[in-house]
Design goal:
Layout (H helix, E strand, L loop, with lengths): L9 H25 L7 H33 L5 H4 L2 H23 L2
């Protein structure tokens, strides 16, 4: 009832989600690759985090572009902007990447 309610724009929320996804991607990649401690060096971790953040952004961009090309093929009279906005696509693809990373980590160490 008296909780703090922070109003953020959708762009800030998407960037936070992309940054979290990039961090998780970096940690999972390091653990699967060598099984070493992903936080052993702060500068190495931050550089890997930034690279994986960019990779997740590129995955979202390519997936959105691929979907934008296929939507008119399946739905003749509609454009991708009429169906789902780019903000929702970023959220959807980031959550899909998080689920894939979590499941790959679970299957790797199971």
């Amino acid at each position: 009832m008296w909780g703090l309610r922070v109003s953020m724009s959708i762009n800030i929320k998407n960037n936070i989600l992309l940054a979290f996804t990039g961090m998780l991607f970096s940690i999972v990649h390091t653990l699967i690759k060598g099984g070493e401690d992903p936080l052993r060096s702060s500068s190495l971790f931050l550089s890997q985090w930034f690279i994986h953040y960019l990779v997740v952004c590129l995955i979202c961009a390519f997936a959105y572009g691929f979907t934008a090309v296929l939507i008119p093929y399946f739905y003749k009279d509609e454009k991708i902007g009429d169906i789902v906005s780019i903000d929702k696509y970023i959220t959807i693809y980031s959550l899909v990447v998080i689920v894939i990373l979590t499941s790959s980590l679970l299957f790797q160490f199971n």
